[in-house]
Protein 1
Amino acid sequence: MKLNVKNLSYILVLINSLILFGEIPVSVLVITWTTTALSFLLGPQTLRAVIKPVILFGSLFFLKYHFKTYLVPEAGVSFVLILASLKLWELEKESDHFNMFLILALLESCLFLLKPSFMIFFLGMLKIVIFFYYILKIRNYDLSLLNVKRLLILVTPSILFSLLLFYTFPRFTSGFMNTTNPQLLFSGVDSQLNFKKLGPLNLSSKVVFRVIGLNAKEFPIPLLYWRENILWDYYKEEWKTGYLNLRSEQLPLPKPVSSYRVQLEKDYNEFLPILDGMSNITKSNLEFNFFSEGSFRLKNITKSTVSYEVNSSYESNWKIISPIMMRKGLRLKSDMKDKIEELLVNGRTFKDDQEKFQAIVDFFKDRDFEYTLNPPTYNSLEDFILYGKSGYCSHFAAAFAYLSRVMDLPVRIVSGYQGGEYNPFDSSVLVRELDAHSWVEVYFKDRGWVRYDPTATIAPGRIQLGANVFNEKLEPYLNFYYYKLPKSLLKFRFVDQASLWLDSLNTSFSYNILNFDKERQQQLISNLLPKNISLGIAFAFCLGVSLPVLWLFFFLASRTRVNKDEKRYNRFLKKMKSMGLQKENSETASIFSRRCMLTLPEHSEYIQNETSSYINSFYRS
Amino acid sequence: MLTKVQTNFEEKVHNLGRQGQLYIVPTLDGLKLLCLNLILLIIGLVYANNYVLLFNFILFCLFIGSMYYTHFNLRNLSLASARINPVHLGEKTNLTLTFKSKSALGHHFIGIKIKHHALAAGDLLFSFSLKDKQPSCKIEFPVEGKKRGVANLKRITVETYFPFHLFRAFTYFDLNLKTIVYPEKKLLDPFKIIEIADEKTGNEDDFYLKNFYPGDSLRRIHWKKYAQTGKLLTKQLFANEELPVQLGFSSEGLLPEQKEKELCSICYTLYELHAAGLHYGLALDKTSVEPGHSQQHLNNCLRALAEYET
């Protein structure tokens, strides 16, 4: 198949529909692919003219029915995708291809709406450039004319100008629309732990959030805990957030305090992960609430990227406890409670909470649990505590919390992440889905909520080595039917380095472009320009100044470079003119020099020198 | 509608008579791209998406950049000389134009347009750049005579869409170049020929036979030979041998189409007589050309024909 502009249109529509897979309803993708296939099958123009409006209006009705409104981005993106596939039906004339280019450009920007990442943006630009190249090709342009130099002359000032406009264009609001589709919410937001559903773990290396600004020398990055969500309620094998009304003002932090920025990149964002210990969020691009249990939650669940700045006191721990917290932290409804208590106490008496706590830790150690990514499914938490052999962090945290409550120790489960990968290219920490972790916080009257990680007791390597390395040691082989392939064979250092470099690029791009908001813009403008100048005036000024500057750039680029010998000869001509001798157009240099020498014999030598220098440089080379 | 606006604009500008002014207007593609810019700006603002805004600004700035590039692709282009040869109706000749440039970027995909009632022109695109040691460029632009008479080619339009076809930059160069469109050189009816003055008489038997030329008197045709051989031969009297052939024509009572047809035949005859090396003269209603034989004479005759009743 020869690659031409028509085939390229098909390829781009299909690629974009595949990129949008999972973002828009499958039915829209089916309509798109069917429409694309029909462009091959439907021959007669009249038949096409009848079916086209049917598909178009049918799609509009369908989108209204599915999304309830056209204003959610998914509805708009779906419509543009269907429109692009319909445009494939009429790619005959040159103008059709240009119209297709415009629709594809619109489709690319739709991709940026749903998948705002550097790679998607970069690939989108690349696709558009390639498509435009083919548009120029069908216009019979001699494309060799668009060589590197000319393209640089055209593209460089345009890119600089566009960046200037981008940074000065006034951000009136943080958007007029709620960019989430209410129907898609809550699928995947993990605010509960159902013990019965805990099965084998699939490890995903997808980045959940990245942290910028933490000093790797100051912090033991692989050992850090990132708290996200607190689970209080235990009812029928399920741990839940509890919906406690603990909303409060943020608290002052004990020193030392570390500042860093978090960029959250989950599919659906509700909880804001922070470094374990006491923390305050100082700035966020979306509104959030603080809960005195030590968690931060967005006011509205969103699909868009969240960025916020945090101050953390890693060494400290949360101390607040209210009656409701105490009640929730101790509540345990279980038929097996007495039996487990008997087993745990074993006729002993405990002086204080610390001894109770130690008894639970000892019980845990005695049970000889094993860490595994493929545990069996247990009927109940009690079943696991009494007879279970293997599990992972969620099993251990849930069991430890259960035992603590049996012993009347207030406890809560903290779900979040542990560890992370340090990226030396931009000094950021990447926390991935495979770093997800659970631990518990036990309340002691004198110390407050103290973190305890039961997994560290069972499998210290999981905490010390980090999830990635530990799991690789745990499962060093990839199972391929009956064969086992060592995972180490598939690891290449340069691939890891390249992916870290790309990630740092993505982070930097996201920070400088995607998350460039009103506040940062005002800060930038106030740093660059005198105070009391509004953004509108700054933008108008940049636009007004840039256009002449751009013109000047082209003017200088198109200016003919005058040779130094020619300059010298021009000076000579000027001098002669001041002496009353002007060179006629019909005169050659030598004839003019003879005329000059006749009129000004006293300057003969000078005239002779200048003329011969000019003639030598231009005619005898 | 856009075409109408564009035509009106061009006519207005054309009649301003300002030479060297460079105009630039967006093409339909350019306007479509501008609309897309507007849509993307709204999307970017409504959904507060910086990628869409940046993409939009890049497209917009490339649009502005291409405007400047198109402008500079035509800027500093000057017309050094222009020449055109006379042409017969329906035949093609070349308008020779020499352009000079002072632009380091060169000039690419420059198009020439001519709007003239008497001359029809095709499309021509040319490029030249200073980099290739080509400070000037000689263009042979084919034009076709479409109406008999003296054509004064006042102006030509030079335009470009380079590099992205989003803008059209154009300018006018004053030529004031006169050329003549001669009648079509075509023998329409060999027997319906022009009356030739044949006043002199001599010895009717003292003749020799020569090939028939249109314009020869029908009375001199050797009909007997024609019947025998099927070939037209004319009796050339020795007494009249030195006398020039005098062509005469009057359009009185003729329809315009008939007149043009007659002029075509005269034109053809003139060439035939010239090729035969004969002396010939031309007498039209108010104009007459004395008998003679030279290229200049032929040109004078043809010019008289071209200017006849125009």
Protein 2
Amino acid sequence: MIEYYNAERPLIMHIDLNSCFATVEQQARPMLRDRPVAIVNRRTESTSIVTASYEAKAFGVKVGMRVKDAKRLVPGLVTLESDPAKYRYVYHKMMSIMKRYSPHITMKSIDEGVIDFHVTTDIIRDRDLVDVGHEMKLRLRQEIGRAMRCNVGISTNRFLAKTAASLHKPDGLDIIDHTNLRQVLTGLKLTDLTGIAKHNEHRLNAVGIYTPIDFLDTDAHTLHTMVFKSILGEQWHQRLRGHEVDDVTHDLKTVGRQYVLEAKNLPHALILQRLHHLCESVGAKLRSQGKQARGVLVYAKTTERGYWHARHMCELPFFSNGAIYAQASMLFAGVPAGIYEIGISCYELNDGVDDQLSLFGDSLAREQQVTEVIDSINKRFGDRTIHAADTLGTGTHVKQKIPFGSTRYL
Amino acid sequence: MNDETFLNERVEVLASFGEGLNPCKPLCFRRASGREVSVSEIGLRHPSTKGMRTIHVFDVTDGGADYRLEFDTERLTWHLTREADHYD
């Protein structure tokens, strides 16, 4: 079966900053080094931890754990509110270091990226990539700070490179190729593989696949017809063997934001103000990508009824904060009581180029001009210099947080 | 919870402007109370903005406490905006 493994030279490098936000804070504040640190998005005891330092993780502190639970494990835990500007700077520094090695880099999120050495110069490609990996670690320490650490994984495709980067944390450097693929997978669980969480694990277990080696030894037909019931089966077959199937870009499908209310049982009027704030934020994100939307979805999570949502699709695309809020507030009229989280997203996006003349051309042109002027003022004098009057006091609660996942807004 | 104290204190800063990746290095600063603080390490310098104004944020330490200094590139002023010194 080994003849099906990708035997080419590994030229994909995955770089992952270790416990990124906590490490950046420890870099910025030397007194925090070697101490258990947790990064949170809100200064309350009931909030969840976004990132924990390795010192905190050693005591059992995990991402997603509530601060008060973490402090039971580590009474001396230092909790810090996230500082997106700082993390954004480190992200851009990391990206600039990566770009020195290849023009083909992909930032997967704020703390990880991939370098493809297939398309770089011969001088760089002919170097030992292990040396390049160590050099990147050194540059990270020299150009950002000596407390910075990263994991480097090298392989023939993105999936195995990411797997390699997770083998020895923190500060590891590993290679996976056709010679050690089976050996590496032998030491892993199914859920250690990126893309295999509980749901997919159950699917695999149902056909007798309990380990990554079982998964590797399963043929593509079985994965297609019995496990994933789609082309995903073939893709997993290729992916596990080191062939590239993940070098794809995805179009922007939705733009959204959510907010966990600062207190339970807030009056409906105050919740609407926070919804309005979210609408303004979503509108700005939408326009920053040069998009318009046709659909709006609002949701709420309630203590008694769980998840509630409502959506509306318009005939014509829209882009202004006012248009988004008009629809969101209308949909929100049917929201149940006992809300603790709200969210909004715009969908059915397009590029805003419409050659067909509109009957409402004048009013649309005016709305566009007003929106552009507001955006330019906010860009010049700072976010939310101009905003809706009823969101005057919401800024202290609804703050911009770290954009996980997408790097579009960094 | 958080040990930080948030401030907006105008300070006098002695800084060197040289070469390299981080050409601007605050060396010491004098607080409004007259107390002088010597910077023993610059943890991180990152740019930020206030509207179109670029602010360089320096997270520094004197070995006993961490401080945040902000340099306004348009107004050429320094402010001490954070102090953190109680960890235990």
